[in-house]
Design a protein that fits this description.
10 helices; 8-stranded mixed β-sheet; alpha/beta; 8 strands
């Protein structure tokens, strides 16, 4: 039976494509509503090595959408990376899976990302998205950024997008897929954050006003991202830079706009490695 595990994969992209997946190391940052879908799908594809990065534990409000959580898992007390690792290990013991119970802004996480071949970002906050984008650009790591969104208007709008950067010709910043002002606020140290609160009041995110999140919408975005990754790694075609799912309209669009030509992340620091000093975030006391 084990010899037949990837038979249907191989019928699509060939044995060589399956071998490429088996020799690939993917890091997934954020093992939540999007990340658990990504972990499950990469495991079923047969990606040979997975590194899962998340500092948080499961909460009761996660139970509507996290793949792999069981009724018997204690809350609090169950870490997200445990859920992801168990999902992999109980599906395919041939996959090398490592869990890092830490924030992205940690030496352990930075080192793991630099060692990986491809990076999936499944993050909620703009600040950590910006750091991950910068880190991947500095070390020329292909970065697949996923985001889902629901705006409960009347009627509601819902969907999400997949933004992929790999060659210095577009990223979440120059393709206008990141709120830079919000990212800067996220990355303030605790003293600066308290000062801003005192001057401008308490922002909505500090009131724990989490928005809606639905398992099937997350599943669509994760599947779009994993499909682009699969086509890319197996050699079928290069990925699309920006795919947007408009759930309320029932369609997916591909953005063909040219990215901003003077992007700092694509042009100034790309490939500079340690010289880009992304490690400064580890010294600045950023709390995300």
């Amino acid at each position: 039976m084990e010899n037949d595990r990837f038979d249907r994969n191989i019928r699509f992209f060939g044995r060589k494509g399956q071998e490429r997946l088996a020799s690939t190391h993917v890091a997934i940052v954020g093992i939540g509503g999007l990340g658990t879908h990504v972990v499950q799908q990469l495991t079923l594809l047969g990606v040979g090595r997975l590194t899962l990065i998340d500092k948080e534990e499961i909460e009761a409000t996660n139970l509507n959408r996290y793949i792999g959580v069981r009724r018997s898992d204690p809350i609090p007390g169950t870490h997200k990376i445990f859920i992801g690792k168990r999902l992999v290990e109980e599906t395919n013991t041939d996959i090398n899976v490592v869990g890092i119970k830490a924030s992205l802004i940690s030496e352990q996480a930075f080192n793991a990302i630099i060692r990986a071949d491809y990076i999936f970002g499944c993050l909620d906050k703009e600040g950590v998205r910006l750091i991950l984008n910068e880190l991947c650009s500095a070390y020329k790591k292909p970065y697949i950024d996923l985001a889902s969104d629901i705006i409960p208007d009347n009627p509601p709008t819902y969907g999400g997008r997949v933004c992929i950067s790999w060659d210095g010709q577009g990223c979440i910043v120059c393709l206008d897929q990141l709120d830079v002002v919000e990212a800067q606020e996220d990355l303030e140290n605790s003293e600066a954050r308290e000062t801003r609160k005192a001057i401008y009041g308490v922002p909505l995110e500090d009131l724990d006003a989490a928005g809606p999140s639905i398992v099937s919408i997350n599943g669509v975005i994760a599947s779009l991202g994993v499909t682009e990754f699969m086509l890319w790694v197996t050699g079928i075609r290069l990925p699309k830079r920006l795919c947007t799912y408009h759930g309320n309209m029932g369609r997916v669009t591909i953005n063909t706009d040219e990215p901003a030509p003077d992007c700092y992340y694509c042009k100034e620091i790309r490939g500079k490695g340690d010289e880009a000093d992304v490690q400064r975030y580890l010294k600045e006391g950023v709390d995300t």
